[in-house]
Amino acid sequence: MNLNVEIFREFNNFTFYIICIHGGQIEYEYLLGIIKIRIFFMKWEKTFRLILKTLLFIVLAVVLLFGGIIIYGTFKDYQPAQKEKLEISGQGYFDASNDSVLTFISWNIGYCGLGKDMDFFYDGGSKVRPSKEDFRKYLNGTLNFFLKNDTVDIFLLQEVDTNARKSYYANESILINQFIPNYSYVFAKNYDVKFVPFPVYSPMGSVVSGMMILSKIRPVEAYRLPYIVNYSWPMKIFLFDRCVLYTKFKMPGGKYLVLLNTHNSAFDDAAKLRESEGYVLKAIMLDEYERGNYVVAGGDWNRNPPGFDMKKLDNSEAKKTAEPAFEKDFLPGGWTWVFDPSQPTNRDVNEAYIKGKTKTTIIDYFVVSPNLDVIENKTIPTNFEFSDHQPVFLRVKIKAATP
Q1: Where are the domains of the chain?
Q2: 121: closest CA among 355, 384, 351?
Q3: Is cis: bond before 219, omega within 30 of 0?
Q4: Mean pLDDT of the 25-40 span
Q5: What is the per-residue burial (b if ≥16 Cβ within 10 Å, else e) of 91-119?
Q6: Could you tell me where the beta strands, DSSP code E, fall in 221-293?
Q7: Cβ-Cβ contacts under 8 Å for 287 (sequence gap 6 or more)
Q8: Helix axes 172-179 and 132-148, enclosed angle (nearest 10)
Q9: SS in 3 state form for 324-358?
Q10: If you classify domain 83-398 with CATH, what class do you get?
Q11: Is-cis flag, bond preceding 381, omega within 30?
C-alpha cells in the first residue's frame, strides 16, 4: 500500500498524528496496530493519571507522617539532667550487718517480655511484645523469683518498665516492691519516648523504662548520672538515654558502700558507645575508691568481661562473643571482675530460645574494689524462662583494716 499523505485523527479534542510519510511504503496492518495502541492509551489515560496521583499522594503522606513523628519526637525528647537526685522509696530500714557480709543479685528482667518463647524485632526477630498470656507468665515468674530470693540484701535490675505498650502498661517497679515490701528502692529512668514508630508493621509505641536498686539497707543518697555520648539525631530520639544508677550506703566503721547499676548500650553499631560508657564507669569507680569507699558495680554491660573464654561455657549451649571485651588492664591491680565462666547470662533474641542452637554469652557481672573480698559468685540457672538474661549472684565481705 503506497502512502503519500499525512494521516491524523481527532480523539477527545486531541489531535493524534498517526504517521507522516512522504514517498514511503508501509503495511496496512502495521499502521492499524499503531492506531489501536494509541486508542488504548487514550482510553485509559485518565485511569493511569489517577493511579499516578494516588501513588504520589501515598508517598507524600508517608513522608509527612514520618516527618511529623520526627518533629514531634524531637520536641518531646527526654532531656535528663546532668546529675539528678533520685527519690528513695519503700520500707527498707535495716543497717548493714556487723559481720560486714553483703549479698547481691543483678538481673536484666527484659521488661518481663523477653522470656523463653519470645523473639524481638531489634535483634532480628519479628515480635514487638509477647501475647498477654505469655506476658503474665513471664511477669509472675519474675515476681516469684524475687520472693524465693528475698534473703538477698540488694537487687540490681535493668529493663524495668513502668508505662510501656510492650509490657501492657504495667508498672513493674511498683509490682516488684509490692512482692518484696521490706526493701527500699530507687528507680532511674533511661528510656522515655512518647512514640517509637518501629517496626512499621506494628510500632512499639510509647515507652517509659529504667533501672532499679532494691535494698534492705536504706541508701543515704541516690543519683542518676548520665553517660556522655549517645546516638546522633534523629536516632537518639527513639532510643535509650543510658545512665548509671548511683547509690550510697552507710557501712559499719563510718565508711560508705557505693553501688553502681549500669545497663550499657546494645547492638553491634554501639561498640564505640560501650567503650565510652566503660570509661565513665571507670572514672566513677576509681574516684569513689580513692575517697575510701567500698565500690561494687554490676549490671548488663553488653560486652564480655576480661578473661571471658567461650571454651569454658557450658558445652550444651551455642556460644558467641560480645565485643569489645574489656581488657585485663582496664582497671588497676586489686580490682576484681566477678563472673561465673561456666554459665551464660544472655541469649540472642532473634528466635525463641532453643538450647544448643540459640547463641549465648556472658555480659552480666560485677566489679568490686580492692577493699572487698569475694566470697561467692554464680549465675543462677533459669533456662531463660522469664527473660533473655539469667541472674548473677555475688557475696562479698569487707576486708579487715590493715594496721
Answers
A1: 6-43, 83-398
A2: 351
A3: no
A4: 61
A5: ebeeebeeebebbbbbbbbbbbbbbbbbb
A6: 221-226, 243-250, 256-263
A7: none
A8: 40
A9: CCCCCCCCCCCCEEECCCCCCCEECCCCCCCCCCC
A10: alpha beta
A11: no
Cα(199)–Cα(310) distance, rounded to whole angstroms?
Answer: 33
Cα distance between residue 279 and residue 261, in whole Å:
15
Kindly tell me if the per-residue pLDDT of 10 is higher than 60: no
Mean pLDDT, range 24-51, rounded to an integer: 65
Cis peptide before 324 (omega within 30 of 0): yes
| Residue 30: all three cell numbers together | 502495521
Which pLDDT belongs to residue 253?
Answer: 80
The model's pLDDT over 307-352, given as tens digits with 9 standing for 90+, comes to: 999 999 999 999 999 999 999 999 999 999 999 999 999 999 999 9
> What does the alpha-carbon distance between residue 253 and residue 294 come to, in Å, rounded to a whole number?
12
Is residue 396 packed enough to be buried (19+ CB in 10 Å), middle (13-18) or exposed (0-12)? buried
- Which pLDDT band holds residue 400 (cuts at 50, 70, 90)? confident
284, 403, 290, 300: which is closest to 347 by C-alpha? Answer: 300
Contact criterion met (CB below 8 Å) for 115 and 134 = yes
Chain CA centroid to CA 300, Å: 11
Residue the block writes with cell 550510697:
248
Average of per-residue pLDDT values in the chain = 88
Q: Could you tell me if 120 and 108 are in contact, meaning their C-beta atoms sit under 8 angstroms apart?
A: no
Q: What is the pLDDT of residue 142?
A: 98
**Interstrand relation of 294-300 and 256-263 (parallel, antiparallel or unpaired):** parallel
What does the angle CA 119 – CA 123 – CA 126 come to, to the nearest 5 degrees?
45
Helix (H) or strand (E) holding 360: strand 359-361
User: What are the grid coordinates assigned to 380, written together?
Assistant: 543462677
Least confident of 5-19, 66-80, 85-99, 149-163: 5-19
| CB-CB contact of 160 with 187 (8 Å) | yes
Spatial distance between the Cα atoms of 374 and 387, rounded to a whole number of angstroms? 27
Residue range 137-143: mean pLDDT, rounded: 98
DSSP bridge pairs for 213: 156, 186
Q: What is the pTM of this model?
A: 0.86
Which range in 16-30, 93-107, 316-330 is most confidently predicted, on average pLDDT?
A: 316-330
